[in-house]
Structure formats: structure tokens, C-alpha cells
Amino acid sequence: MVHQPASQALSRFTILDLSRVRAGPTAVRQLADWGADVIKVEMPAALEADGALGAARDTPDFRNLQRNKRSLTLNLKEADGLAILKRL
């Protein structure tokens, strides 16, 4: 699906979204809806205990919270993953 922001007001901003529980993804979704370039940084599924801190990745709720965001999976416990995050 092509990204169609509701506005271009924030199009000059790039946001790194490291949030996990509802309030964070909801707030950042608003920035994406207003045109910001949002990159959602997720932990690898293998490191996620059981999805307890958020919705399962294949649910409509999760997809709604992450709309208009690009996604990147990084293991921030590894030096390579942390280095990539710092470059972003």
C-alpha cells in the first residue's frame, strides 16, 4: 500500500520510533499521518518474550498502530545493531 499522509506539515522530519506499548506507537502514528518519515525500529521476534508488551505483529491492531511507518528490525543488544541505530 502506498503511503498517503493526511498532511505534509512534518515532511521535513525523520522520526525513529523505538516505542512499544500503545501510547508510544499511537503518538508516533500521528506524526506519520502528518507526513513525517517514521522508521519503526523493532526487536527480532525471537527476542520478544511472548508479545506481552504489545500486540502480535499480524493483528489488525498492530497494523493500525504502525500505519504510515517504515520498519527495521535490529537487535540492539548486539554491537552491529546498535551501530546501525546510531547511524540512523
In short:
This protein has 88 residues and is α/β, with parallel strands linked by helices. It is built from three helices and three strands; from the N terminus they run E-H-E-H-E-H.
Plain-language structure description:
The chain has 88 residues and is of the alpha/beta class. The chain has helices at residues 23-33, 60-65, 79-87; strands spanning 14-17, 37-42, 69-73. The protein has a three-stranded parallel sheet, with helices on one face.
**Helix-strand pattern:** EHEHEH
Q: How many angstroms separate the termini?
A: 24 Å
Overall mean confidence score, pLDDT:
86
Count of DSSP H/I helices:
3
The biggest sheet amounts to: 3 strands, parallel
- Rg, alpha carbons: 13 Å
Strand content: 15-25%
Shape: globular
Helix content: 25-40%
**Runs with pLDDT <50, length 5+?**
none
Would you count the extended β strands for me?
A: 3
